Amino acid sequence: MSIISVKNLEKRFGDVCVLQNLNADIDKGEVISIIGPSGTGKSTFLRAINFLDPPTGGEVFFDGEIITKRNVDTTRRRMGMVFQSFGLFSHLDVMGNLTAGPVKLLKTPKKEAEEKAEELLKTVGLSERAKFFPRQLSGGQKQRVAIARCLAMSPEVILFDEPTSALDPTMVSEVMAVIRNLAKSGMTMLVVTHEMDFARDVSTRVMYMDENGIYEEGSPAEIFTSPKKPKTQAFIYNIRSYNYEAKSRDFDHVEMLVGIENFCFSHAIEKKTANKIQLLAEELVINIVTPKYGACSLNLSFSEKLGAYELSVLYGGEGSNALEAAEDELSAMMVLNSAKEIRHEYAGGTNTITASL
Amino acid sequence: MTINKTQENGKLILAIEGRLDTTTAPQFQNVLIPAFDKAKEVMLDFKNLVYVSSAGLRVLLMGQKTAKAKSCSMTVTGVSDDVMEILEMTGFSDMLTII
Fold it and tell me: ipTM for the complex?
Protein backbone atom coordinates (compact mmCIF):
# COMPACT_ATOMS: atom_id res chain seq x y z
CA MET A 1 0.00 0.00 0.00
CA SER A 2 1.19 3.51 -0.79
CA ILE A 3 2.37 5.68 2.09
CA ILE A 4 0.99 8.75 0.29
CA SER A 5 -1.84 8.68 -2.18
CA VAL A 6 -3.09 11.79 -3.96
CA LYS A 7 -6.45 11.65 -5.74
CA ASN A 8 -7.67 14.34 -8.15
CA LEU A 9 -5.83 17.05 -6.24
CA GLU A 10 -6.77 20.60 -7.08
CA LYS A 11 -5.25 23.81 -5.76
CA ARG A 12 -6.51 27.25 -6.69
CA PHE A 13 -5.38 30.65 -5.50
CA GLY A 14 -8.44 32.80 -6.25
CA ASP A 15 -9.09 32.46 -9.97
CA VAL A 16 -5.69 30.96 -10.66
CA CYS A 17 -5.63 27.20 -10.89
CA VAL A 18 -2.14 25.89 -10.05
CA LEU A 19 -2.87 22.17 -9.77
CA GLN A 20 -5.70 20.26 -11.35
CA ASN A 21 -6.68 16.60 -11.38
CA LEU A 22 -3.30 15.53 -9.99
CA ASN A 23 -2.96 11.87 -9.06
CA ALA A 24 0.06 10.20 -7.49
CA ASP A 25 0.91 7.17 -5.39
CA ILE A 26 4.14 7.17 -3.40
CA ASP A 27 5.43 3.94 -1.94
CA LYS A 28 7.57 3.49 1.18
CA GLY A 29 11.29 3.96 0.49
CA GLU A 30 10.77 5.85 -2.77
CA VAL A 31 12.97 8.88 -3.43
CA ILE A 32 11.05 11.12 -5.79
CA SER A 33 12.56 14.17 -7.43
CA ILE A 34 10.08 16.77 -8.59
CA ILE A 35 11.50 18.89 -11.38
CA GLY A 36 10.21 21.43 -13.87
CA PRO A 37 10.22 25.11 -14.77
CA SER A 38 9.45 27.77 -12.16
CA GLY A 39 5.79 28.42 -11.50
CA THR A 40 4.51 24.97 -12.39
CA GLY A 41 3.25 24.18 -8.90
CA LYS A 42 6.08 21.98 -7.59
CA SER A 43 6.24 23.62 -4.17
CA THR A 44 2.46 24.02 -4.09
CA PHE A 45 2.16 20.26 -4.61
CA LEU A 46 4.33 19.57 -1.53
CA ARG A 47 2.54 22.18 0.55
CA ALA A 48 -0.83 20.72 -0.46
CA ILE A 49 0.27 17.23 0.57
CA ASN A 50 0.93 18.31 4.15
CA PHE A 51 -1.88 20.90 4.18
CA LEU A 52 0.37 23.95 4.63
CA ASP A 53 -1.66 25.15 1.64
CA PRO A 54 -4.77 22.95 1.94
CA PRO A 55 -6.05 21.60 -1.39
CA THR A 56 -9.16 23.21 -2.84
CA GLY A 57 -10.24 19.88 -4.25
CA GLY A 58 -9.42 16.18 -4.22
CA GLU A 59 -8.01 14.06 -1.43
CA VAL A 60 -4.66 13.18 0.10
CA PHE A 61 -4.22 9.91 1.98
CA PHE A 62 -1.36 9.18 4.37
CA ASP A 63 -0.83 5.54 5.24
CA GLY A 64 -4.38 4.81 4.05
CA GLU A 65 -6.02 7.54 6.10
CA ILE A 66 -7.49 10.64 4.48
CA ILE A 67 -5.86 13.87 5.68
CA THR A 68 -8.29 16.45 6.97
CA LYS A 69 -7.89 19.72 8.87
CA ARG A 70 -8.74 17.75 12.01
CA ASN A 71 -5.98 15.13 11.82
CA VAL A 72 -3.36 17.14 9.95
CA ASP A 73 -1.25 17.81 13.07
CA THR A 74 -0.87 14.09 13.75
CA THR A 75 0.01 13.46 10.12
CA ARG A 76 2.61 16.25 10.06
CA ARG A 77 4.46 14.54 12.92
CA ARG A 78 4.95 11.58 10.62
CA MET A 79 5.72 13.69 7.56
CA GLY A 80 8.53 16.22 8.03
CA MET A 81 9.28 19.14 5.77
CA VAL A 82 12.52 20.97 4.99
CA PHE A 83 12.15 24.45 3.57
CA GLN A 84 14.25 26.59 1.27
CA SER A 85 14.60 29.24 3.98
CA PHE A 86 15.54 26.79 6.81
CA GLY A 87 12.81 27.98 9.22
CA LEU A 88 14.95 27.57 12.35
CA PHE A 89 13.94 29.15 15.67
CA SER A 90 16.36 32.07 15.93
CA HIS A 91 16.02 32.39 19.72
CA LEU A 92 17.03 28.75 20.32
CA ASP A 93 20.48 27.26 19.91
CA VAL A 94 21.00 24.23 17.65
CA MET A 95 20.25 21.77 20.47
CA GLY A 96 17.11 23.72 21.38
CA ASN A 97 15.96 23.63 17.76
CA LEU A 98 16.38 19.86 17.65
CA THR A 99 14.72 19.06 20.96
CA ALA A 100 11.79 21.52 20.98
CA GLY A 101 9.57 19.36 18.74
CA PRO A 102 10.21 15.96 20.37
CA VAL A 103 9.86 17.37 23.93
CA LYS A 104 6.76 19.50 23.35
CA LEU A 105 4.88 17.51 20.73
CA LEU A 106 6.00 13.91 21.25
CA LYS A 107 6.47 14.30 25.03
CA THR A 108 9.92 12.72 24.77
CA PRO A 109 11.96 13.15 28.01
CA LYS A 110 14.45 16.02 27.57
CA LYS A 111 17.52 13.85 28.20
CA GLU A 112 16.42 11.29 25.65
CA ALA A 113 15.67 14.04 23.10
CA GLU A 114 19.13 15.53 23.67
CA GLU A 115 20.83 12.17 23.22
CA LYS A 116 19.01 11.66 19.94
CA ALA A 117 19.85 15.23 18.88
CA GLU A 118 23.54 14.58 19.53
CA GLU A 119 23.39 11.48 17.33
CA LEU A 120 21.62 13.38 14.57
CA LEU A 121 24.10 16.26 14.72
CA LYS A 122 26.84 13.69 14.24
CA THR A 123 25.18 12.34 11.12
CA VAL A 124 24.95 15.82 9.59
CA GLY A 125 28.52 16.67 10.67
CA LEU A 126 27.61 19.38 13.18
CA SER A 127 28.37 17.82 16.57
CA GLU A 128 30.46 20.80 17.56
CA ARG A 129 27.77 23.34 16.78
CA ALA A 130 25.17 22.21 19.37
CA LYS A 131 25.49 25.41 21.38
CA PHE A 132 25.56 27.76 18.41
CA PHE A 133 22.62 29.96 17.50
CA PRO A 134 21.33 30.03 13.90
CA ARG A 135 22.86 33.48 13.28
CA GLN A 136 26.31 31.99 13.97
CA LEU A 137 25.94 29.35 11.25
CA SER A 138 26.50 29.44 7.50
CA GLY A 139 23.56 28.80 5.16
CA GLY A 140 24.70 25.23 4.52
CA GLN A 141 25.03 24.55 8.26
CA LYS A 142 21.57 26.03 8.93
CA GLN A 143 20.04 23.72 6.34
CA ARG A 144 21.83 20.70 7.82
CA VAL A 145 20.43 21.66 11.24
CA ALA A 146 16.98 21.97 9.66
CA ILE A 147 17.31 18.44 8.26
CA ALA A 148 18.48 17.10 11.64
CA ARG A 149 15.56 18.86 13.32
CA CYS A 150 13.19 17.23 10.89
CA LEU A 151 14.74 13.81 11.63
CA ALA A 152 14.44 14.41 15.38
CA MET A 153 10.70 13.90 14.97
CA SER A 154 11.36 10.42 13.46
CA PRO A 155 9.27 11.11 10.38
CA GLU A 156 8.27 8.36 7.96
CA VAL A 157 8.38 10.72 4.99
CA ILE A 158 10.33 13.93 4.39
CA LEU A 159 9.25 16.62 1.94
CA PHE A 160 12.12 18.81 0.73
CA ASP A 161 11.11 22.11 -0.85
CA GLU A 162 14.11 23.32 -2.90
CA PRO A 163 16.49 22.71 0.00
CA THR A 164 19.52 24.25 -1.72
CA SER A 165 17.96 27.13 -3.67
CA ALA A 166 18.80 29.76 -1.08
CA LEU A 167 22.39 28.60 -0.64
CA ASP A 168 25.64 29.94 -1.98
CA PRO A 169 26.84 27.46 -4.65
CA THR A 170 29.81 26.49 -2.44
CA MET A 171 27.39 25.20 0.22
CA VAL A 172 25.11 23.17 -2.02
CA SER A 173 27.29 20.05 -1.96
CA GLU A 174 27.44 19.77 1.86
CA VAL A 175 23.63 19.80 2.06
CA MET A 176 23.17 17.49 -0.91
CA ALA A 177 25.60 15.01 0.67
CA VAL A 178 23.37 14.80 3.75
CA ILE A 179 20.25 14.35 1.61
CA ARG A 180 21.99 11.66 -0.49
CA ASN A 181 22.90 9.74 2.67
CA LEU A 182 19.34 9.99 3.88
CA ALA A 183 18.09 8.61 0.55
CA LYS A 184 20.46 5.66 0.92
CA SER A 185 19.07 4.95 4.38
CA GLY A 186 15.68 4.08 2.89
CA MET A 187 13.79 7.20 3.97
CA THR A 188 10.77 8.01 1.80
CA MET A 189 11.45 11.41 0.29
CA LEU A 190 9.85 13.88 -2.11
CA VAL A 191 12.36 16.47 -3.22
CA VAL A 192 11.55 19.57 -5.26
CA THR A 193 14.91 20.31 -6.76
CA HIS A 194 16.91 22.03 -9.47
CA GLU A 195 19.89 19.77 -8.74
CA MET A 196 19.69 17.54 -11.78
CA ASP A 197 22.65 15.39 -10.70
CA PHE A 198 20.69 14.44 -7.61
CA ALA A 199 17.48 13.81 -9.57
CA ARG A 200 19.35 11.60 -12.03
CA ASP A 201 21.66 9.72 -9.66
CA VAL A 202 19.70 9.30 -6.43
CA SER A 203 15.98 9.27 -7.23
CA THR A 204 13.97 6.15 -7.77
CA ARG A 205 11.40 8.18 -9.74
CA VAL A 206 11.33 11.62 -11.35
CA MET A 207 8.16 13.67 -11.75
CA TYR A 208 8.27 16.47 -14.32
CA MET A 209 5.61 19.08 -13.53
CA ASP A 210 3.93 21.32 -16.06
CA GLU A 211 0.39 22.16 -17.24
CA ASN A 212 -1.09 22.11 -13.72
CA GLY A 213 0.11 18.67 -12.76
CA ILE A 214 2.51 15.80 -13.25
CA TYR A 215 3.15 16.15 -16.98
CA GLU A 216 5.45 13.13 -17.26
CA GLU A 217 7.02 10.74 -14.79
CA GLY A 218 9.37 7.82 -14.94
CA SER A 219 12.69 6.44 -13.86
CA PRO A 220 15.64 8.87 -13.98
CA ALA A 221 16.86 7.06 -17.12
CA GLU A 222 13.47 7.47 -18.82
CA ILE A 223 13.16 11.16 -17.99
CA PHE A 224 16.76 12.22 -18.55
CA THR A 225 17.70 9.99 -21.47
CA SER A 226 14.49 9.53 -23.41
CA PRO A 227 11.72 11.88 -22.30
CA LYS A 228 8.63 11.26 -24.40
CA LYS A 229 6.50 14.39 -24.18
CA PRO A 230 7.43 17.68 -25.88
CA LYS A 231 7.65 19.93 -22.79
CA THR A 232 9.76 17.42 -20.89
CA GLN A 233 12.02 17.08 -23.91
CA ALA A 234 12.39 20.86 -24.20
CA PHE A 235 13.21 21.18 -20.49
CA ILE A 236 15.67 18.30 -20.36
CA TYR A 237 17.45 19.20 -23.61
CA ASN A 238 17.65 22.83 -22.60
CA ILE A 239 19.41 22.03 -19.35
CA ARG A 240 21.75 19.83 -21.31
CA SER A 241 23.15 22.54 -23.55
CA TYR A 242 25.59 25.41 -23.15
CA ASN A 243 25.80 28.41 -25.45
CA TYR A 244 28.44 31.11 -25.67
CA GLU A 245 28.72 34.13 -27.96
CA ALA A 246 32.24 35.26 -28.80
CA LYS A 247 31.39 38.76 -29.98
CA SER A 248 34.82 39.71 -31.33
CA ARG A 249 38.40 38.46 -31.63
CA ASP A 250 39.08 39.90 -28.18
CA PHE A 251 36.30 38.05 -26.41
CA ASP A 252 36.72 36.89 -22.81
CA HIS A 253 38.45 33.48 -23.16
CA VAL A 254 38.28 32.82 -19.44
CA GLU A 255 34.52 33.36 -19.33
CA MET A 256 33.96 30.79 -22.10
CA LEU A 257 36.35 28.20 -20.66
CA VAL A 258 34.96 28.56 -17.13
CA GLY A 259 31.42 28.32 -18.52
CA ILE A 260 32.25 25.02 -20.25
CA GLU A 261 34.04 23.73 -17.16
CA ASN A 262 31.00 24.50 -14.99
CA PHE A 263 28.65 22.89 -17.52
CA CYS A 264 30.78 19.72 -17.57
CA PHE A 265 30.94 19.67 -13.79
CA SER A 266 27.22 20.23 -13.23
CA HIS A 267 26.36 17.50 -15.76
CA ALA A 268 28.81 15.08 -14.17
CA ILE A 269 30.59 14.62 -17.50
CA GLU A 270 33.49 12.21 -17.16
CA LYS A 271 36.85 14.00 -16.81
CA LYS A 272 38.31 12.61 -20.02
CA THR A 273 35.31 13.70 -22.10
CA ALA A 274 35.25 17.08 -20.33
CA ASN A 275 38.90 17.64 -21.26
CA LYS A 276 38.15 16.81 -24.90
CA ILE A 277 35.23 19.24 -24.92
CA GLN A 278 37.50 21.95 -23.45
CA LEU A 279 40.20 21.20 -25.99
CA LEU A 280 37.83 21.32 -28.96
CA ALA A 281 36.32 24.61 -27.78
CA GLU A 282 39.69 26.19 -27.08
CA GLU A 283 41.31 25.18 -30.36
CA LEU A 284 38.29 25.78 -32.58
CA VAL A 285 37.00 29.03 -31.12
CA ILE A 286 40.15 30.72 -29.78
CA ASN A 287 42.81 29.55 -32.24
CA ILE A 288 41.01 28.74 -35.48
CA VAL A 289 37.69 30.56 -35.98
CA THR A 290 37.85 33.93 -34.19
CA PRO A 291 41.37 34.94 -35.42
CA LYS A 292 40.22 34.59 -39.04
CA TYR A 293 36.45 35.13 -39.03
CA GLY A 294 35.84 37.28 -35.93
CA ALA A 295 32.60 36.75 -33.99
CA CYS A 296 31.23 33.25 -33.61
CA SER A 297 28.92 31.32 -31.35
CA LEU A 298 29.47 28.02 -29.63
CA ASN A 299 26.84 25.45 -28.75
CA LEU A 300 27.53 22.41 -26.66
CA SER A 301 24.69 19.93 -26.31
CA PHE A 302 23.84 16.31 -25.84
CA SER A 303 22.68 14.65 -29.04
CA GLU A 304 19.94 12.14 -28.33
CA LYS A 305 20.46 10.63 -31.75
CA LEU A 306 24.14 9.92 -31.23
CA GLY A 307 24.01 9.43 -27.47
CA ALA A 308 27.03 11.72 -27.25
CA TYR A 309 27.97 15.36 -26.80
CA GLU A 310 28.31 17.58 -29.85
CA LEU A 311 30.07 20.89 -30.03
CA SER A 312 29.14 23.30 -32.81
CA VAL A 313 30.83 26.56 -33.77
CA LEU A 314 28.84 28.94 -35.99
CA TYR A 315 30.43 31.82 -37.90
CA GLY A 316 29.53 34.09 -40.81
CA GLY A 317 31.10 35.03 -44.13
CA GLU A 318 31.27 33.05 -47.32
CA GLY A 319 31.17 29.29 -47.23
CA SER A 320 34.52 28.22 -45.84
CA ASN A 321 35.60 25.29 -43.70
CA ALA A 322 37.76 26.98 -41.06
CA LEU A 323 39.52 23.72 -40.30
CA GLU A 324 40.67 23.22 -43.88
CA ALA A 325 41.67 26.85 -44.18
CA ALA A 326 43.40 26.95 -40.78
CA GLU A 327 46.84 28.50 -40.69
CA ASP A 328 47.35 27.04 -37.25
CA GLU A 329 48.17 23.46 -38.16
CA LEU A 330 48.78 22.33 -34.59
CA SER A 331 45.31 23.43 -33.45
CA ALA A 332 43.66 21.91 -36.53
CA MET A 333 45.44 18.61 -35.94
CA MET A 334 44.32 18.56 -32.30
CA VAL A 335 40.69 19.18 -33.29
CA LEU A 336 40.72 16.50 -36.00
CA ASN A 337 42.30 13.94 -33.68
CA SER A 338 40.12 14.71 -30.64
CA ALA A 339 36.69 14.44 -32.25
CA LYS A 340 35.06 11.22 -33.33
CA GLU A 341 33.53 12.96 -36.32
CA ILE A 342 33.75 16.47 -37.76
CA ARG A 343 31.45 18.02 -40.33
CA HIS A 344 31.11 21.42 -41.97
CA GLU A 345 27.86 22.84 -43.28
CA TYR A 346 27.06 26.15 -44.93
CA ALA A 347 23.50 27.47 -45.08
CA GLY A 348 21.93 30.92 -45.10
CA GLY A 349 25.26 32.70 -44.79
CA THR A 350 26.28 30.71 -41.71
CA ASN A 351 29.10 28.20 -41.50
CA THR A 352 28.73 25.46 -38.90
CA ILE A 353 31.51 23.15 -37.81
CA THR A 354 30.19 20.33 -35.64
CA ALA A 355 32.45 18.01 -33.70
CA SER A 356 30.99 14.84 -32.15
CA LEU A 357 32.67 13.27 -29.17
CA MET B 1 47.61 26.73 -12.54
CA THR B 2 50.42 26.86 -10.01
CA ILE B 3 54.14 26.35 -10.59
CA ASN B 4 56.37 25.17 -7.76
CA LYS B 5 60.11 25.64 -8.17
CA THR B 6 62.70 23.51 -6.38
CA GLN B 7 66.44 23.02 -6.87
CA GLU B 8 68.01 19.57 -6.60
CA ASN B 9 71.74 18.99 -7.28
CA GLY B 10 71.91 21.92 -9.68
CA LYS B 11 68.74 20.77 -11.42
CA LEU B 12 65.74 23.14 -11.46
CA ILE B 13 62.44 21.31 -11.06
CA LEU B 14 59.25 23.07 -12.12
CA ALA B 15 56.17 21.23 -10.85
CA ILE B 16 53.07 22.31 -12.78
CA GLU B 17 49.69 21.84 -11.18
CA GLY B 18 46.34 22.39 -12.92
CA ARG B 19 45.58 23.33 -16.50
CA LEU B 20 47.97 24.56 -19.15
CA ASP B 21 45.72 26.41 -21.59
CA THR B 22 45.36 29.71 -23.43
CA THR B 23 44.92 31.61 -20.21
CA THR B 24 47.74 30.02 -18.22
CA ALA B 25 50.36 29.42 -20.94
CA PRO B 26 51.81 32.98 -20.72
CA GLN B 27 52.46 32.45 -16.98
CA PHE B 28 54.23 29.16 -17.75
CA GLN B 29 56.29 30.82 -20.47
CA ASN B 30 57.37 33.59 -18.07
CA VAL B 31 58.76 30.97 -15.70
CA LEU B 32 60.12 28.39 -18.17
CA ILE B 33 62.18 30.54 -20.55
CA PRO B 34 64.18 32.43 -17.86
CA ALA B 35 64.77 29.10 -16.08
CA PHE B 36 67.51 28.24 -18.62
CA ASP B 37 69.49 31.28 -17.43
CA LYS B 38 69.49 29.84 -13.91
CA ALA B 39 70.10 26.13 -14.47
CA LYS B 40 71.64 23.86 -17.09
CA GLU B 41 69.09 21.16 -16.38
CA VAL B 42 65.37 21.93 -16.15
CA MET B 43 62.92 19.19 -15.25
CA LEU B 44 59.18 19.68 -15.73
CA ASP B 45 57.13 17.65 -13.28
CA PHE B 46 53.71 17.05 -14.90
CA LYS B 47 52.37 14.74 -12.18
CA ASN B 48 49.59 17.20 -11.33
CA LEU B 49 49.05 18.62 -14.79
CA VAL B 50 45.53 17.65 -15.82
CA TYR B 51 45.11 19.34 -19.21
CA VAL B 52 47.24 20.80 -21.96
CA SER B 53 46.13 22.60 -25.12
CA SER B 54 48.09 23.90 -28.13
CA ALA B 55 48.94 27.08 -26.20
CA GLY B 56 50.80 24.98 -23.61
CA LEU B 57 52.46 22.87 -26.30
CA ARG B 58 53.79 26.00 -27.99
CA VAL B 59 55.48 27.04 -24.76
CA LEU B 60 57.00 23.56 -24.45
CA LEU B 61 58.32 23.89 -28.00
CA MET B 62 59.74 27.31 -27.16
CA GLY B 63 61.35 25.83 -24.05
CA GLN B 64 62.91 23.01 -26.06
CA LYS B 65 64.37 25.48 -28.57
CA THR B 66 65.69 27.76 -25.81
CA ALA B 67 67.31 24.80 -24.04
CA LYS B 68 69.05 23.78 -27.25
CA ALA B 69 70.24 27.30 -28.00
CA LYS B 70 71.71 27.65 -24.51
CA SER B 71 73.16 24.12 -24.39
CA CYS B 72 70.79 23.17 -21.57
CA SER B 73 68.53 20.16 -21.14
CA MET B 74 64.77 20.03 -20.61
CA THR B 75 63.16 16.82 -19.43
CA VAL B 76 59.55 16.01 -18.63
CA THR B 77 58.42 13.59 -15.93
CA GLY B 78 55.24 12.29 -14.31
CA VAL B 79 53.06 12.65 -17.42
CA SER B 80 49.49 11.42 -16.86
CA ASP B 81 47.70 9.22 -19.41
CA ASP B 82 45.42 12.05 -20.52
CA VAL B 83 48.28 14.48 -21.12
CA MET B 84 50.37 11.74 -22.77
CA GLU B 85 47.51 11.17 -25.21
CA ILE B 86 47.81 14.80 -26.32
CA LEU B 87 51.61 14.61 -26.57
CA GLU B 88 51.37 11.46 -28.69
CA MET B 89 48.58 12.82 -30.87
CA THR B 90 50.67 15.87 -31.76
CA GLY B 91 54.05 14.16 -32.05
CA PHE B 92 55.39 16.04 -29.02
CA SER B 93 56.12 12.73 -27.27
CA ASP B 94 58.88 12.13 -29.84
CA MET B 95 60.25 15.63 -29.61
CA LEU B 96 60.39 15.95 -25.83
CA THR B 97 62.64 13.98 -23.49
CA ILE B 98 60.08 12.20 -21.32
CA ILE B 99 61.39 10.15 -18.42
Answer: 0.92
